[in-house]
Amino acid sequence: MGFMRKMGLSTSARCLIFKFVSGEILNTSNHTKSTLSPVEKIRFLSEIINHMPGLIAYWDNQLYCHYASKGYLEWFGKSPQSIIGTNLKGLLGESLYLQNERYILGALAGQAQQFERSLIKADGSTRHTLAHYIPDIVNGAVRGFFVRVSDITLLKLAELRAQETQIRLHAILESILDGIITIDESGLITSANPATQHLFGYTEDALIGMNIKKLMREVNVDDQMDHLSHFHFEGENSVLKTGLELEGITKDDRHFPVELRVSEVVALEKKEYVGVIQDITDQKRIEDQLTQLAMIDGLTGLANRRHLDEVLSQEYARHVRSGDELSLILIDVDFFKLFNDTYGHVAGDECLKQLANAIKRVLVRTTDLAARYGGEEFACVLPRTKQQGAIAIAEKIREEINRLAIPHSHSSVANYVTVSLGVVTAFCKADRAVLDIVQTADEQLYAAKSNGRNRYLAHRIE
Q1: CA distances for 232 relative to 184, 222, 236, angstroms
Q2: What is the pLDDT of residues 147-163, one digit of tens each?
Q3: Cβ within 8 Å of residue 179, ≥6 positions away
Q4: What residues in the chain have per-residue pLDDT under 50?
Q5: How much is the pTM?
Q6: How far apart are CA 7 and CA 1, in angstroms?
């Protein structure tokens, strides 16, 4: 029974064989026991073994064959008459015998052997096998050994493909520039590719077991939900399908913008999460540049009209809450059409650039905004500025531009370029609109032009 267990037979099959060997057989016609003859027993056992998967044989302690199953015969291309009594070394050949010799000697020493070997079949094909040598021990003496060989070629091919896939995936992960980590359900990192190690400055050993929150945090927790705190890696929050912008934190406490995406994967009934971390420093820099370009006038470098309108609306709302005064200056170049007609549009553009630089030199506070309002018009937004302060700035702008002394032979005011300015200072109120300030400043500008140009006029809105 021990031999049959080692040969891979099930319990029911072993019991059935034992009954046949012991001479007990159930007569199906009358359900009584009958006795098999020795010949019938041998035939019956031979049929069972021949239908077992793999190759089965028995070799005595002198290495002569006493039995070979049908599969064994077919593998080596032998007939029963040609293999029974054959020496094992003669069957295997010297090379294969030498490879197996230590296992043969081990079996003859009474120790079961198991090993893998590539074998060439009689048809010339090469198959990968798993061999078992099982000692036949009677009264402490080894009479020989049983051989059972299983063809595991398909299994080895599957293992090889899996290894190749793993190597290929590992190579891909090694070459990917984005950080890739696996995370368990507690948010702890279980693996990290080299890009992750490079991004954050940690070794792989240091990253394993680290909570993902140590590497990333919200950019501004006050303004948005702390996604990582609410990310429990389960349920509806288990997948970040869209990128979440976070602040990466390196080992040496350097902060940089990253985007995190998380996907759920299930392998071998174990749930994990794959996080893809992208350094978006360059992307954010380009976005900032594009944002700046969207706010800047291409010719003068001042804020454009769109940005002026946004800032003026924001400042108006802020001054409604604070109760402070807000001032606005509108500036127009005197007789600028005649300047363009006389000197050309290229000179006109150069003139506007010089005027814009002069305005910027006067506005020294970071809270002040200089903008190109349109054409040859400029605007200055002066937060928390009383009328006296706004008038002083308007006069400095006028004087700074006069000092440029840009020739203008067709001006009826002076022989150089001059400007007119409209100044308004207002207490911002919720029942008024920001447009009221702009309209009042425009009215003051028009009045200054009507009253001789190269001057300012101011008004206060209570």
Answers
A1: 10, 20, 9
A2: 999 998 888 888 888 88
A3: 192, 193, 195, 196, 199, 200, 275, 276, 277, 278, 279
A4: 1, 3-4, 6-7, 9-32, 221-238
A5: 0.51
A6: 10
